[in-house]
Amino acid sequence: MSDKTGVIQMAFAGDHAKNYDSARKRMMPIKGALHLCIEAVLADLPEDARFLLVGAGTGDELLALAVMFPHATFTVVEPSPDMMAVCREKAEAAGVAARCDFHTGFLDSLADQGPYDAATSILVSQFCVERPDRVQFFREMATRLKPGGFAITADLSADLESNNFKQMWPVWAAFQHGADMPAGMAEKFLAAVGTHLAVATEAEMEELLLESGLKAPVRFFQTLMIHAWFARR
User: Fold this and answer.
1) What are the beta bridge partners of residue 215?
2) 63 CB-side CA count, 13 A
3) What are the CA-CA distances from residue 101 to residues 40, 56, 75, 109 (Å)?
4) Strand locations in the chain, DSSP E?
5) Secondary structure tally for the chain: helices H, strands E
6) Dihedral class, residue 151 (left if φ above 0, else alpha if ψ from -120 to 50, else beta)
7) 129-148 residue pLDDT tens
């Protein structure tokens, strides 16, 4: 992943990490709906399931999954030390830190090879701008799963050349500006595509997952430009 440390330092360090939750509070209903759908996808996992959470951020997925699976354990991977600090603090406050192994770094530096029952990456892989890096990112997840284990990813997805996107864009921009973000943030999104952010079509995302060694990807969630898939090893 080219210059991945620099991107993390720009976007998810210092005050950005401290203010991350408050700046995105209006996205929480979307994430809440996504978490409910993830619970349904993973309904048949064993009670003592092992989870790999990649790019765990400030811990939204961790806290939701810890409630859904009260006997599960979690390997929490987050490259930003400041984001990880917030995640740890929230996990300790919720009483789930004892079920967690926290790894500050990228997935390629994680020694634990699993096997895991499920792995998640929520709005993470889109920061792998180059296609080979993105395939490798998903492959790192896939190889740590048990046979039949679930990989779940949520990412921004659109056909940027389509009429659908042209009509979606003002809606997405309005949502972004309404989410307590500074004026102009939505416009910066388009400038970032291809340099700091990858936005793939649905077909391209499914190709990426298949190429990484996962099977039969299914899109199970969409809200605006946020799409989510599950696939199995």
Assistant:
1) 232
2) 17
3) 25, 12, 5, 14
4) 50-54, 73-78, 100-104, 116-122, 145-156, 215-223, 226-232
5) 10, 7
6) beta
7) 999 999 999 999 999 999 99
